[in-house]
Design a protein that fits this description.
The protein is an alpha/beta fold. It contains 14 helices and 15 strands. The protein has a seven-stranded mixed sheet with strand order 2-10-9-8-7-3-4, sandwiched between helices. The chain is globular and about 55 Å long.
């Protein structure tokens, strides 16, 4: 088979159609439903940060190609941020790389570090780009399932250890975890670290919700003994500062891993968001009062939605972090989350995301759906009122 006889889509991406976020957002637009599916705020972040971007535009900073690794001001701010919050040290010149959001950082890391035939162990349910990026790199996805227990989704270290084989190249970790809201404990992370060191594995950690932890603490895996030299840490400005459209992310790690990721990244976007990089550099230096206020605002929204969902008859997993609530539809007499979410906009005018699309073992996620609470309180209150009619 050749030319037009072969399907146009690269066979590694067979099965990856339009993302569920695009499908559900289109449903919201068509029906006029309240969109609690895709995770973006309905208000902008700090005015001072927005004005910093405007100022950079007017001053001509970033209007042309910024440096490939990112503007020095932002790389320094990222390094200072890691030291300020976690006590870790990174050289802004050789151990920090600015990316087009965390999504590009994940893609570049996997394209750089994974070869065809390598296995990548990932916690499921997982953000949908993980599967696509592993496939594009020619890797094999090996899921380890976070299982519901006592109102949360938990990691079984023995299951993680059993998933590792001689073909395993890296572990792809996400904490605070989307979509379940789980925040891995220091003990769980220590188990991950022990497995990575025992088998000489690399680890890529997605920590974009690092400042949205309601219970427990966020512990960067790279801060644990023996993990800095084998860990690529990813974060971004979108979730912390509510400017998701700016798509400014970054990685930190040892020079050899950052250089590898930069090699792949330069052939993806090359560079992006020049003026926004200067603004995010200022954002990362905001006082602690900003981060505390942001967290408390989201905590109130979490509680508003989680309580409302419980009153509407859902089983609710109150998240320890992120801005998503996972709900169980079985108390409502339903078991198929995909069908439930597709019908929900027409039934009550609310959009949610079915968790099953984040699983390889779809049956494990079948009865769970995800709602985003990063919306204005009045929007959440209206959504809850509609859901109570179920």
């Amino acid at each position: 088979m050749s030319g037009m006889e072969r399907p146009p889509l690269n066979r590694n991406l067979a099965g990856f159609g339009t993302t569920v976020f695009a499908e559900m957002s289109a449903l919201a637009q068509r029906t006029g439903a309240i969109n609690l599916g895709q995770g973006f705020p309905d208000t902008d972040g700090p005015e001072a940060v927005r004005e910093a971007a405007v100022r950079a535009l007017r001053d001509g900073r970033g209007n042309q190609y910024p440096p490939g690794p990112g503007v020095p001001e932002l790389r320094r701010a990222v390094a200072d941020h890691q030291h300020r919050w976690y006590g870790t040290e990174y050289d802004p010149d050789s151990e920090v790389l600015v990316t087009a959001g965390a999504t590009e950082a994940i893609a570049a890391a996997l394209l750089a570090l994974v070869e065809p035939g390598d296995e990548v162990v990932a916690l499921e349910p997982y953000y949908d780009s993980y599967a696509a990026c592993i496939a594009m790199a020619g890797g094999t996805r090996v899921p380890v399932t976070l299982r519901p227990s006592d109102g949360a989704f938990v990691l079984d270290p023995d299951e993680l250890r059993a998933a590792v084989t001689p073909r395993t190249r890296l572990i792809l970790l996400n904490t605070p975890h989307n979509p379940t809201g789980t925040v891995l404990t220091r003990e769980e992370l220590a188990a991950v670290a022990a497995i990575a060191q025992e088998h000489d594995l690399l680890v890529v950690t997605d920590e974009v919700y690092e400042h949205l932890v309601f219970e427990g603490e966020h512990v960067p895996l790279a801060s644990l003994p023996g993990m800095r030299e084998r860990t690529v840490t990813i974060s971004s400005a979108g979730k912390t500062f509510s400017f998701t459209g700016w798509k400014i992310g970054w990685i930190t790690g040892p020079p050899e891993l950052v250089t590898a990721v930069r090699t792949a990244k330069q052939f993806l976007t090359y560079v992006s968001g020049g003026p926004f990089q200067y603004a995010v550099a200022e954002a990362l230096r905001l006082p602690g009062s900003y981060f505390r206020g942001f967290l408390e605002d989201l905590r109130g929204k979490r509680d508003l939605l989680a309580t409302g969902l419980a009153e509407a008859g859902f089983g609710v997993f109150r998240p320890q972090g992120t801005y998503f609530v996972t709900a169980d539809i079985r108390p409502l007499g339903r078991t198929n989350g995909v069908a439930f979410c597709r019908a929900l906009p027409e039934r009550v005018g609310v959009v949610a995301i079915p968790n099953a699309v984040f699983y390889d073992h779809a049956d494990a996620g079948a009865p769970f759906v995800r709602f985003a609470f990063c919306k204005r309180p009045e929007v959440l209150a209206e959504a809850v009122a509609r859901l109570k009619t179920l």
